[in-house]
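ESCALATION

Customer reports they have been waiting on this structure for their group meeting. Please prioritize. Original submission:
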Amino acid sequence: MSSRQGQAGILILVGVIVVVIVVVAATLVPNLTPEPPIPVAIQQDQKVVKDFVENMLSDKTYETITLLEKNGGYLDAELNAVQTTSFLHSKVPYWQRCETPMVLTRTAIAQKLGTIVENELKTNLQGMSEINGKEVEFDVDTTQAAVNILDNRVDIIVDLITTVKGYRIREPYTVSVPTTFGRIIDFASDFSREEADTRFFETFTILDIEAFSDLPRVGYLTECGDSIYMSPLEVANRLEGIVMDIIVNTKMWDDTIIQGGIPVQYGIPEVYNKHTYEDLETEEGIRFFMPDGFSITTFNPVIILNLERLVQVKYLPDPNVCWGFYDQKYSAAYPIIIRVYDSILNSYFNFANFAYVDGTEPGSCDSMSLATTCSDMQCSARVIVNDGYGKPFPGTSVYMGGCLVGTTDDFGEVDAPAPCGTYNLVIFNSTEYEFVNKEVTNNGNYYEMFTLNRLPKLTFNIVQSPPTCGYDYVDNEMLFLTIASDKLEEDFLLVNNQIVNVDSCMASSGANAYCDTCTEDSTNINACNECLIRSSGCLESVITPTVNIDYIPAGDYKMSGIIMNMKMINTYSSTYPFIATPLVLSETKLKIPQEDSTINIRVPESDKIYNYAIDTYNTRKDDKRCICGDCELACCPCIGGPDKETDEMAEAAALVDATNYIRVERSISVEACS
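Update from on-call: job pushed to the front of the queue and completed.
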């Protein structure tokens, strides 16, 4: 009886669960009920509405693509925020300038196109309730457009909730516009990247100047007093002719061909990543043009004089024998308009590149403003230069913003026109002296005095033992000595057999963070080892006790650093990891003289220090001291009996003692021996 009652209870429970599941399912999945069919008449009305929207979408897409092609991938308003040139009285954006590509991608342009389409639909459909007599309602806030730019078409998919007489139109709206837009974007990007990398227009210009133009380039004058002079206008006209010749005779997907008697054909056989786009070479294809108002401006004439007498013989009819070599360099900067025909849309994609030749090689756009700056120097600069002994330093060149202000006179002074604004000031005499390269601001009358110290040839001997100027050289120690001066922005790192810039070496190797951690916490063995490993890239592979340096200016410095005993590290670091902890050398003064010198740097005997640390470690590790309650380490005797350290506790204490001993600052001394 009880069994039947139990079965009945189970059946009731199962039934309740089934009812609950059905109710929940009906609540959560209301769409299980099929939608009522859309009446045929409504379907026809929906088709009218959908065709209307898709036609609007197609027209706007076509219009926007044509605009984007004309503007090189940009909208009208965007052209005010990017660098452009002018062609056919319209702005054309740069996709490359000198060594810098400035390209757009299909994805970036597709996002612009999608935004334009969305805004167009929202604007035109907002509040619209009837289309061709059909009752319609658009929820424009739901408008979302996805654009896919393909090689030969642009696909637009738009989600927009639309109802006709209460019935929702099936989404999405779709439009496909035939065009080579995507293929042209890829070409423009690859072409511009290739020009930024290989600088083919600069190469063509240099080749023409060197081999085919009538501009004086390299040669000799043999007549005393002979000269070559060309005005800035003449130079500019000839450079313009060279550039225009290159633009006319450059051919895509072909090699450069040089044959006597016919113009040179300048060829670009491929572009970035070895891509070719021969399918774009239709009747109009890919063409090159000069911008509106094209001209090359130069402010410097060509003045070559042959006044150098090789020999004077008064008994010969022509007593003056002269031989003058000249090497004349030119600069030319110019935009190139690249126009690509979209054969499907019958429109043109316009973009610009910018070439700059500086002398005999491609130039950087960072130096482009020099010609204008140096020709319009409205401020003045007075600069006085002394040598390391405090005497006037004649014959020193002073540049501001790349413009030669002048050369110091017998009093070590230059007082001449200079550019206004903030520029780099460069003061240079010869490779035997330090130079100045600093940013200065000239608001009208710049004045400053400078001292150029000599760069003596220095030999640093890393030695031990007491004798003055003795030569008990180190043989296992690797030194990192920082040489710093309040007068210099950069410190120098003296490492056995090499000097490097601290920041560039340690930053590029990634050692800075680990070495900082090791300095703050010498027990962090992992950080100290990583510091050692990463710093090793700044060093020569062979440790030497003698370091030769040919560039640290004479003056007063502070020197400090660390020592690592490589022999001890290689021998004992696996057993005694604290051996990788460097010895810290306290700061000491260093005076570098103007004359060539030998300087001894006396360092502590690291072998003894590390061996003592090992003895300290072993002794302390075996000395298991008692501890009492919350007391630490040695507090014996304890009331109630001793409580000894564990092996782990003793070893940890030994590691701290050994490391602390190594990290005690130790002094170094400096001796000038010659």
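Sent to customer with the following note: Residues 74 and 275 are 24 Å apart (CA to CA).
Escalation resolved.
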